[in-house]
Amino acid sequence: MIIREAKFVMSNSRVEQCPPPTLPEYAFIGRSNVGKSSLINMLTGQNGLAKTSSLPGKTQLINHFLINDQWFLVDLPGYGYAKVSKESRAQWGKMINYYLRKRENLACVFVLIDSRHAPLAPDLEFIEMLGTEGIPFVLVFTKADKMSGSRAHQNVTSYLAKLQETWDELPRHFVTSAAEKTGRDEILNFIEDVNR
Ligand code: GDP
């Protein structure tokens, strides 16, 4: 897919205020600092479209972008911020759960995982919730350039092995590097296929 246009539409905290659900929607989520903004900017080819997080935890809103007038890309607030209060964490949970369950045009959730890390409880819990709720999702392993190719491959394989302890069927996954611009075509082609 060629990205001809990517524009910011709105930020809000309520599903009811999201744009009318007339186009398929793809949401991106992950732990703070996982590389979500960098990935979104790489996918859209627009540096600065999603704000890279100099202040973790700052954006607790659902951010909609319109791509090629054909689909929505949604930047969801991340989880796992160390400095966030219990109260805002609970608020985050409510907003995200509501969004994931109610957003009728949600085609797929991209769950971002730092490819250097061993499986972490918040990610596993989130994946578990998506699976249990039947919400379509795929995994995106980020920052693959930070390791040698074989090390990245090893990490991804052991991550998937961990998931296999719980799930019979593994989710589709992508390995990306925003720094080296890898994984872009694979993700965009996947979205194009789902949109068909
Ligand atoms: P966010 O908090 O998930 O939106 O993460 P950011 O996109 O702001 O990235 C967090 C940090 O990781 C920044 O310092 C980025 O420059 C860095 N980063 C993000 N993606 C990559 C990548 O693919 N490779 C490398 N080497 N660094 C990355």
Automatic annotation (TrEMBL):
<dbReference type="GO" id="GO:0046872">
    <property type="term" value="F:metal ion binding"/>
</dbReference>
<dbReference type="GO" id="GO:0000917">
    <property type="term" value="P:division septum assembly"/>
</dbReference>
<keyword id="KW-0479">Metal-binding</keyword>
<feature type="domain" description="EngB-type G">
    <location>
        <begin position="22"/>
        <end position="196"/>
    </location>
</feature>
<dbReference type="InterPro" id="IPR006073">
    <property type="entry name" value="GTP-bd"/>
</dbReference>
<dbReference type="InterPro" id="IPR030393">
    <property type="entry name" value="G_ENGB_dom"/>
</dbReference>
<keyword id="KW-0547">Nucleotide-binding</keyword>
<keyword id="KW-0717">Septation</keyword>
<protein>
    <recommendedName>
        <fullName>Probable GTP-binding protein EngB</fullName>
    </recommendedName>
</protein>
<comment type="function">
    <text>Necessary for normal cell division and for the maintenance of normal septation.</text>
</comment>
<keyword id="KW-0132">Cell division</keyword>
<dbReference type="Pfam" id="PF01926">
    <property type="entry name" value="MMR_HSR1"/>
</dbReference>
<keyword id="KW-0131">Cell cycle</keyword>
<dbReference type="InterPro" id="IPR027417">
    <property type="entry name" value="P-loop_NTPase"/>
</dbReference>
<comment type="similarity">
    <text>Belongs to the TRAFAC class TrmE-Era-EngA-EngB-Septin-like GTPase superfamily. EngB GTPase family.</text>
</comment>
<keyword id="KW-0342">GTP-binding</keyword>
<keyword id="KW-0460">Magnesium</keyword>
<dbReference type="InterPro" id="IPR019987">
    <property type="entry name" value="GTP-bd_ribosome_bio_YsxC"/>
</dbReference>
<dbReference type="GO" id="GO:0005525">
    <property type="term" value="F:GTP binding"/>
</dbReference>
